[in-house]
Design goal:
Oligomer: heterodimer
Structural class of chain A: alpha/beta
Largest sheet of chain B: 9 strands, mixed
Strand order of the largest sheet of chain B: 7-6-5-8-1-9-19-2-20
Largest interface: A-B, 26 and 40 residues
Helix content of chain B: 25-40%
Largest sheet of chain A: 5 strands, parallel
Low-confidence stretches of chain B: none
Strand content of chain B: 15-25%
Number of helices of chain B: 13
Number of helices of chain A: 8
Strand order of the largest sheet of chain A: 2-3-1-4-5
Shape of chain A: elongated
Shape of chain B: globular
Distance between the termini of chain A: 38 Å
Mean pLDDT of chain B: 95
Structural class of chain B: alpha/beta
Radius of gyration of chain B: 22 Å
């Protein structure tokens, strides 16, 4: 009975910038609205779909292409595919955008010094200590999106604000129905409701 | 994971289901015998809105921010809103189930118009203005519902406060048959984890026909042709439930609930007539016949309080700095309210006998008071009397409802029956709480129970 059209919501940003946290919160809202949703988390994908791939430019590109490939399959079958991956290189993100078509890029932006201070997983510390080589933002590049559909600045916004930015954009782009759409009814309808209440003796 | 079917019977009364007609209702009796059952304590107030929403959210009316169908949107005298789904901000059980990718079938649960998206199918409730608007989610489900209902699904009867009882009886029976028929159609698809329907017919029957079977009702006439109308209707509902049980997958857990109970109505207290006599409400002109009180009739500069009619009364105070023409100094608010509460509790019946009225302050009964609550919440005769808001009745006591024929008032306790195939160890409570239903449903589906839910899971 569902006539849902799929699309891909692609979260990009440095490690620790809040991509997955926002993606999971968005997922919950979309599920609540009855949409079919799948989250492809970069960390999880690396241990399954992309097991064995390293962190060279080629392997990183291959990782993102594979995620994009799955997103495309899901999207064209009516699913909202949410990818959450650092995806540091612009050309591969754009490759996915081209392939998928219905593609919404969300850039989770956060200054490096803030991320290093947060360093929830202790990865930045290890990268600075040289224990991790080729770490994005430290000794490997991150190419910011030039025109992301949504920019969330996670050092300035709280989670709710960021999530609402994403949801509102999806509504405005017509990818998901507006939350308020069902709440809008005409004055004529309002009068009919009142008449129902009068008929029922409630007013 | 097994499924859960919830059959909601608006207004079903424990004294009728559990006692008086238990042997006439083989399917409900079987569920009672095999499972657990007991009274289900409703919300304060025990009325359809907010009770069903409280049941589905485990939030009290204060938390929900609405106290009945009509609610004040501001402290202006005229600014009211009608509490439909637009105003339900709390999450319902099906919101949480959708998050867990579980499919819900939601049929006729009050306050679901306009229908909001969910994972599954929703048919909106009796306050849907007409079927010309979107009344299902998804929209395309509407034609399937109609078809499964035999061509025309009835959202509600048009009017149940009528003297045309033959018509009313026919309409209620037809509505119920069609609703169950449509619901069963969707149930047979076996697509849904949680299936909930609310049938409004019992409520309509109680209000329309209570006088004919209750020997203690003031208007009871032995041997009247409608003497068995309510019993026969309960039997019809039981038969329909039997057909539904046959269609449910074997591992389905079945819960039957009602949002409140019912009792005979002894009369009505004309609350505004009483306030006029007490010098607390002044009209510009006194009507010579019963007239619904509207704000333009009131001389606000000489008025301290006014009330609303209904199964209970909401009393509003005209407070300086709050209402546009406030009369009670805000410093005197507490003392005035206490004094008025005591006076209302002392209103006797027409013969001067005490009737046991209970009056509540919202902050004493709700965890928080969102929106604009009445200043006092009044249950005349502890629900044996209703509240008539009309003025010009010429009396404080009347014996017919001022909004049309009505024999019954709501009562505090509805019903709870739960037959779980796995025979879990259900907590015993007397009564159970309406707030326990949502957490119990979530526990059934192994969904984390949000901390803000105020009830507790029953197993």
């Amino acid at each position: 009975m569902s006539s849902q059209k799929g699309f891909t919501l692609w979260f990009t940003g440095l490690s620790g910038s809040g991509k997955t946290t926002i993606a999971r919160a968005v997922e919950e809202i979309l599920l609540e609205r009855g949409l079919n949703v799948e989250v492809l988390d970069g960390d999880v994908i690396r241990t399954n779909l992309c097991k064995g791939l390293g962190f060279s430019k080629e392997d990183r590109d291959e990782n993102i292409k594979r995620i994009g490939f799955v997103c495309n399959l899901l999207s064209r079958n009516g699913v909202v595919a949410i990818a959450s991956a650092i995806s540091p290189y612009r050309d591969i993100r754009d490759y996915n955008r081209e392939m998928i078509g219905r593609f919404v890029e969300v850039y989770a932006k956060c200054p490096l010094d803030v991320l290093e201070e947060r360093d929830v997983k202790g990865l930045y510390k290890k990268a600075r200590a040289g224990e991790i080589k080729g770490f994005t933002g430290v000794d490997d590049p991150y190419e910011e999106p030039l025109k992301p559909e949504v920019l969330v600045e996670t050092d300035k916004e709280d989670l709710e604000e960021s999530v609402q930015k994403v949801i509102r954009t999806l509504e405005l782009m017509g990818y998901i129905p507006g939350a308020d759409a069902s709440e809008e009814y005409s004055a004529e309808e309002e009068e009919k409701i009142k008449q129902r209440l009068r008929d029922l003796g409630y007013i | 994971m097994s499924r859960l079917a919830m059959i909601g019977l608006d207004c079903a009364a424990p004294q009728l289901v559990f006692e008086r007609w238990r042997d006439d209702l083989p399917n409900l009796r079987s569920l009672m015998d095999d499972g657990v059952y007991g009274k289900l304590r409703s919300t304060i107030p025990p009325i359809t809105v907010p009770a069903w929403t409280s049941m589905m959210t485990s939030q009290d009316p204060g938390q929900l921010g609405f106290y009945g169908f009509r609610n004040r949107a501001s402290y202006d005298y005229k600014d009211l809103f009608f509490a439909n789904a637009k105003y339900v901000k709390a999450k319902t059980v099906w919101n949480y189930l959708s998050r867990q990718r579980l499919n819900s079938l939601v049929f006729g649960v009050p306050q679901t118009y306009p229908p909001k998206p969910l994972k599954g199918v929703m048919v909106s409730s009796f306050l849907t203005p007409s079927k010309e608007v979107q009344w299902t989610h998804p929209r395309e489900a509407a034609s399937e519902v109609d078809q499964a209902a035999g061509g025309d699904y009835m959202i509600d009867v048009k009017d149940f406060r009528t003297d045309d009882k033959d018509w009313l009886l026919d309409q209620i029976h037809e509505m119920t048959r069609r609703r169950f028929s449509a619901f069963r159609h969707f149930v047979r698809k076996k697509e849904f984890d949680f299936m909930a329907m609310v049938e409004m017919g019992i409520d309509r029957m109680h209000h329309g026909f209570w006088r004919y079977f209750d020997e203690e009702h003031r208007l009871y006439e032995p041997g009247h042709k409608y003497e068995h109308a309510i019993r026969d209707y309960y039997k019809l509902v039981d038969e329909e439930i039997g057909l539904l049980l046959d269609d449910l997958p074997r591992d389905t857990s079945v819960m039957v609930t009602s949002d409140h109970g019912a009792r005979r109505m002894d009369g009505a207290i004309c609350v505004n007539e009483w306030l006029i006599r007490e010098g607390l409400l002044t009209l510009k002109e006194t009507p010579t016949e019963p007239t619904r009180l509207t704000p333009d009739m009131v001389n606000w500069s000489k008025t301290k309080a006014w009330g609303e009619g209904g199964y209970y009364s909401r009393i509003f105070l005209n407070v300086e700095g709050r209402e546009p023409k406030g009369k009670i100094p805000s410093a005197d608010y507490d003392a005035f309210r206490d004094e008025l509460k005591a006076k209302i509790e002392a209103i006797p019946d027409e013969k001067g006998n005490p009737i046991g009225t209970t009056v509540y302050k919202p902050e004493d009964i709700y965890r928080v008071v969102n929106g604009i609550a009445p200043d006092l919440i009044v249950f005349f005769g502890d629900l044996a009397w209703r509240s008539a808001g009309s003025v010009g009745t010429g009396a404080v006591h009347i014996f017919e409802n001022d909004t049309g024929p009505d024999d019954a008032n709501h009562d505090w306790d509805g019903i709870f029956i739960w037959d779980h195939p796995a025979k879990v160890d259900v907590k015993k409570k007397d009564p159970y709480s309406i707030y326990d239903i949502a957490p119990t449903i979530l526990r059934f589906f192994n969904v984390d129970i949000p901390e803000h839910m105020i009830g507790e899971p029953l197993f």
